[in-house]
Amino acid sequence: MDLTEKTLSQKNVFNGRIINLRVDEIELPNGEKSTREVIEHNGGACIVALTDNDEVLLVKQYRYAYGKVVTEIPAGKIEKGEDPLDCASRELVEETGYSAKKIELLGEVYPSPGYCGETIYIYKATELCKGNQHLDEDEFLDVIKLPLKEAYDMIVRGELCDSKTICGILRVYCEKYL
User: Quick one: which of 20, 44, 74, 133 is 20 to 30 A from 89 by CA?
Assistant: First the structure.
């Protein structure tokens, strides 16, 4: 069965700094018509930075949409035309002050495929070098180091809820221990 939905028309509803919203009229596989609300986003990149002592660098920052402080791996929005690797490297330095001699792509995730076209690229950084943070003027965060095993245990206990963080840490943990 062909599961493809065909786009019949698109209407831009909102254009913002970070996202755009459009409503599409589509034809379903059975020939019926329906609509899809789609958030357009340039995508993001995140990075699991692992010290020589198997500690993960995490950032704690207030996330307005959730109304609380969230613990995450360093990440950021990919600028138009920017390579995801460059974004991940930039965010690692900006948010933590660390740079890495070795960075490898772990994969990509689709955080909310039901309504958003965002792709997040997940990287692993090793051979870290300490430098200085370069936070954006509207960015306030704390950097913490946790043993990889403790970060994994926090995921299991439900204490880390950010999807990219869960995916990245699990990928690195499985690669190392399973």
Answer: 20
Position 87 scores a pLDDT of: 98
In this prediction, residues 101-126 reach a mean pLDDT of 97
Whole-number pLDDT of residue 104? 98
CA separation (Å) from 122 to 104, 105, 114, 163?
Answer: 9, 6, 20, 11
Find tokens 């740079």 and name the residue.
Answer: 99
Q: Looking at 27, 94, 137, 175, which residue is catalytic? A: 137
- CA nearest neighbour of 38 among 84, 72, 7, 66: 7
Structural element, H or E, at residue 170 = helix 163-177
Selected from 3.90.79.10, 3.30.420.40, 3.10.450.700, 1.10.1740.10, the CATH number assigned to the domain covering 44-177 reads: 3.90.79.10
